[in-house]
Specification:
Elements lengths: L18 H12 L5 H9 L8 H4 L11 H4 L9 H8 L4 H35 L4 H10 L3
Length: about 140
């Protein structure tokens, strides 16, 4: 069931269905968005469904303070924003899941290739023999 005003639904409040928009609206409620500083902060905020192109190639970080296992007690109930949005009327959950599965396969292949290249470089560095005078030059340059 869609939520709207009793008299005229065009008068709002407007309930967005995409998870990124739900998150954006939630964060807007935590920020003083009517001031210039809050508006600038909201302009810098970017929310996406899935992981779009420029960010899928970047190194990702884990924020321990946001992990569910550390923040929620085991008996507490929780829900995922994507599930909530799809029950609320968002129609692209299956598409995003398919695209994310493709991205994860590509990312795994890239990671395996990177690990193999790093391992082979380390093996090559161990096998190489450096003369004493070349070793002095390397140490002077900071490559001990």
């Amino acid at each position: 069931k869609r939520k709207h005003t009793n008299s005229n639904p065009r008068h709002g409040p407007f309930h967005q269905r995409a998870p990124a928009k739900i998150l954006w609206r939630t964060i807007r409620g935590m920020v003083p968005h009517k001031t210039a500083r809050g508006a600038a902060a909201l302009d810098r905020l970017k929310c996406f469904e899935g992981m779009p192109h420029p960010y899928d190639r970047k190194k990702r970080m884990v924020m321990p303070c946001a992990l569910k296992v550390l923040r929620l007690r085991p008996e507490r109930r929780f829900c995922k924003l994507g599930d909530l949005a799809s029950e609320f009327g968002w129609k692209h959950k299956d598409l995003i899941k398919r695209l994310e599965d493709q991205r994860k396969v590509k990312s795994e292949a890239f990671h395996k290739k990177k690990v193999a290249a790093t391992r082979s470089r380390q093996d090559a560095v161990k096998k190489v023999k450096v003369s004493a005078e070349d070793q002095k030059i390397l140490e002077a340059a900071g490559f001990a």
